[in-house]
Amino acid sequence: MFVDLTRWTSEQRRAPAARGGHGRDYNIDEMEDKEDVASDEAVMWQPRDYYDPLPELPYAVILLNKGITKANVGNVRQWWCSAHLRVCVDGATNEFHHLMHQQQESTTASPLVSCPLPDVISGDFDSALPDLLKIYATKGVRIVPTPDQDETDFTKALWVLTGLLEEQQTAVSHILVVAGSDDNRFDHIMGIVATLYKACETMSSPVVVVSGGSLFWVLRAGQHSIRVPGESCHHPSASWCGLVPVGHPATVTTTGLKWNVDHQTLAFGRLVSTSNTYNLPPGGGEVTVTTSAPILWTMGWKAEPAQPSLSLPEHPNMLNGSLDKM
Known about the structure:
By secondary structure, the protein is of the alpha/beta class.
């Protein structure tokens, strides 16, 4: 099922601005009818909804190339299986296929570990194995070529996902993007950040990236309330946070941080709030951010330990031996 979704990607360039964050009282009907959040209303963010979502929370997940690692495979399984919509981006298809086969082989121990198929596989397909794309197409998965080289596969995957949501006349609370944490490519990281800034202005749902032990997303100009969970306040590997002004200065005021800023200008070459932490009770609390321009918020979360029972191939060609098992 190779699908031409050029209409989706062209329309996404004209999509309405994003509405911002959400809370655990999320209501899909209210989201569809709600006007854009005014700049004088605080947008609420619940980080726990991203790494430990409630069963009833309708969200989408996008799996980027090298997004599955030995350290996060348990979390990826949870996010993938609980998601409302699922998208594999190009080479992530190889990793997903290997993970799915390993879990199918272990179903005698637990019948709950099998992974649902992707709703869509998109990309310019310079990494995905052609035989895998054919197999998933026969299984009813939409294969969406996105050859535009002026945009990243991540950006184009967001366009495709938007088209799928429009086609199904539905909405999601947020889009969780699983990115590789050991890619060793700084340009890939900057490409992801660039896409987040585009998504901030074009997507109707918040886009949040998880990479290793980091969560990050863009806060639009205005007021924000980030509900920091208790484990992020006291766990040594998760109690950090930062505000990074990418591309342009931002005048920022915060509360709830150890090193707050008060109407100070954050900019590269001047002040950047990295390696910050929280000044909150042990059980967690609220960080507020008021910013004059979009700014990148990043924070730690307590990632699941590595699972040695699941391994990933060193080279995608190692998957060929399992292609006939589906």
